[in-house]
Amino acid sequence: xxxxxxxxxxxxxxxxxxxxxxxxxxxxxxxxxxxxxxxxxxxxxxxxxxxxxxxxxxxxxxxxxxxxxxxxxxxxxxxxxxxxxxxxxxxxxxxxxxxxxxxxxxxxxx
Length: 110
Hints:
Layout: H1 2-20, H2 24-61, H3 65-75, E1 85-87, E2 93-95, E3 101-102, E4 105-106, E5 108-109
Antiparallel strand pairs: 1-2, 1-5, 3-4
Helix pairs in contact: 1-2, 2-3
């Protein structure tokens, strides 16, 4: 974790210096620090993901089915699409993905 915090703190310091006085050199230093911090974070995330996959594979090999399926479930995205609602003239909520237009009036989308 410390090897990630160092580039991020360097990036933050370079950003503050860049915001104080915008010069080409400071902007280039900030861009370089940002690139280094992003690269480090991507590498750490990739390492974490590979370790997590290895743990899941080990659970499968050892026939720990409950742990295996629980770990797999953490990777699945169960988000639902947003619900589109609007109020009509009477104040009742309508749910539809179409744009609600009543004559010249556009109904209130909430």
